[in-house]
Design brief:
By secondary structure, the chain is α+β, with helices and mostly antiparallel strands. The chain has two domains: 198 residues, Glutamine Phosphoribosylpyrophosphate, subunit 1, domain 1; 141 residues. It is 42% helix and 24% strand. The protein has eight helices and 16 strands. The strands form four sheets. Strands 10-1-2-11-12 form a five-stranded antiparallel beta sheet, covered by helices on one side. Strands 5-6-7-8-9 form a five-stranded antiparallel beta sheet, with helices on one face. The chain has a four-stranded antiparallel beta sheet with strand order 14-13-16-15. A hairpin with a 2-residue loop joins strand 8 and strand 9. It is globular.
Length: 355
């Protein structure tokens, strides 16, 4: 079986899935790895497809949709729906008649998330040959159990930022892995923005799964302590202080780890890693003998930058002008001494917004 969920957020749509597939080999059921989410490799159209069922029809449908979307680039919801209907009809007419799988196993379910240029973010569900518009902005296929739906409904907010939506997606897959037989292996996450769609990279997902698990341990403990009236009121502030200290330390750790992963992926040419901000806007990422860390600008740095802007407006300081041009490049290392490197700005699809 499969767990695939998709839901809207403030900046687009997030889709998530497990990668475990169970096949019957004789009298034995064997588990194998199977990727279940698909996007356009060239980022030419913002669309993601997830399929639950046998790999053969899912692969055929995903390929058909991607090829058509890459060429047609439907700019309205109506054209997107027509494309999906045409693709599923093609699969049933051309691929299913020659399939070696028994007919009763050929029906698959799909979720399609896309952003037509002249339409809103759109989530579609396909069952058999029927195409439905998901109007409540969230859906699960595969293990769409009562408990899984209740969990998604509990946490879902259509206005949460993309970063929080991705963390929620990872949390949902982790929960399904824990309680649903047949859901397992690695987690996949696809993000759909107004510009493109991309799959999250494995190192980032693995680190985020650890992040989710570590923070849950803290928040679970705080929840139990908060409703525990046996704790004297005079002692509860200490519980809050301990919680605040632990959360701050954990946030700092994962901020450093995220910055290191993003740098590694960016310099490896993974342009999709910057589909949305994974660390706060304006962060100063430093690399040195201490490793990698990310921090906010100091008051002194902000004042220095203000002075450079003033000098630039007056056109009286050529050195300030040169420094300013250097700083606003999309990804510009500024060497400060022999052991520390600062990296400012972003790369890829996220606009450079640092001051």
């Amino acid at each position: 079986m499969t767990y695939i969920a998709a839901f809207h957020c403030k900046d687009g749509i997030v889709m998530c899935a497990d990668t475990q597939e169970t096949i019957q080999v004789g009298d034995e059921a064997e588990k194998q790895y199977s990727e279940k989410l698909y996007v356009l490799d060239d980022y030419s159209y913002p669309i993601a497809i997830g399929g639950a069922g046998l790999p053969e029809p899912i692969d055929a449908f995903a390929q058909e949709v991607r090829e058509r979307a890459s060429k047609e680039k439907p700019n309205t919801v109506e054209k997107l729906v027509a494309l999906v209907k045409s693709a599923i009809n093609e699969v049933y007419q051309s691929d299913m008649p020659v399939s070696a799988n028994p007919k009763q196993f050929r029906t698959a379910q799909y979720l399609i998330a896309a952003k037509p240029s002249d339409g809103p973010f759109t989530l579609l569900m396909v069952t058999g040959k029927r195409v439905y518009l998901v109007t409540d902005k969230k859906a699960i296929i595969g293990y769409a159990t009562a408990s899984n739906n209740a969990l998604l409904k509990r946490f879902f907010r259509p206005d949460i930022p993309m970063q929080q939506a991705v963390m929620l997606a990872i949390f949902l897959v982790l929960q399904s892995k824990a309680i649903n037989e047949g859901v397992g292996f690695d987690t996949q996450v696809a993000v759909v923005t107004a510009k493109a769609a991309a799959l999250e990279e494995a190192p980032y997902i693995a680190n985020s799964e650890q992040r989710v698990s570590d923070f849950l341990r803290l928040t679970d403990a705080l929840f139990l302590a908060s409703i525990d009236n046996s704790i004297p009121p005079s002692q509860f502030p200490k519980v809050l202080r301990q919680f605040g200290t632990a959360v701050s330390e954990l946030r700092d750790r994962f901020l450093r780890e995220t910055a290191a992963i993003m740098l590694d992926l960016t310099f490896s040419g993974k342009s999709g890693v910057w589909m949305y901000p994974k660390i706060f806007t304006g962060a100063v990422v430093e690399v040195g003998t201490f490793g990698v860390r990310a921090r906010e600008d100091t008051p002194e740095e902000l004042e220095r930058r203000r002075q450079m802007f003033e000098a630039l407006k007056e056109k009286s300081n050529q050195l300030a002008n040169q420094q300013f041009i250097s700083m606003i490049q999309g990804r510009q290392p500024i060497y400060l001494g022999e052991e520390t490197v600062q990296v400012r700005g972003t790369a890829g699809f996220v606009d450079s917004t640092s001051s």
